[in-house]
Amino acid sequence: AEIGMLATLFVIAAVLAVVLLLLFVGLRYKKTAGFSSGVVSLITMMHDCLLSYGVLVLLGFRAGSAFVAAAATVCCCSLINSVVLYDSIRENRRVMGANTTIAEMLNQSVAQCAPKLLAFTILLALGAVCAGVVGMVLDVTVLDIAVPVLAGVLCAFYSATCLNGALWSLWQERQQGKAAAAAAAKSPKSKGKSKK
Length: 196
Known about the structure:
mainly alpha
């Protein structure tokens, strides 16, 4: 009964977090990164949580209430990494101008924010390792939270530097391609009407 209630609360919290994430990231970066930034952040956040859960299961730990706390920590880490990346993209879009391609701007943004993300990841990973070591020394079971947090934090760094920007870039380039095709399709029609 406790697991069922815990699962229900986790699903409600996850749905609420998804809605708030999409609203926050989508609206905050509406002008520069677009609504796609919220969707991509959600995808990478789910990726990070699933990988941390996979590590937990592969190592033989039981997923209980401690994993819910670990998943919340990983989600927060993933969100912070996304915000750092999209802040860098917003700043580079302003500085580099409209003539810069999305790929160039993204590469510059990832290169600028990677040291910050790495420092943040190292600090969180050290915290998880220290919690695990202290828990083992004191014979307290904190490994079922420390292990998924460590795995999730490392996955969140990978996601922010490799997946998040790449998925966003693909989305933006596809949108630009659609807009260019629509403009090209309208262009001959307007020329034909002006000749008549």
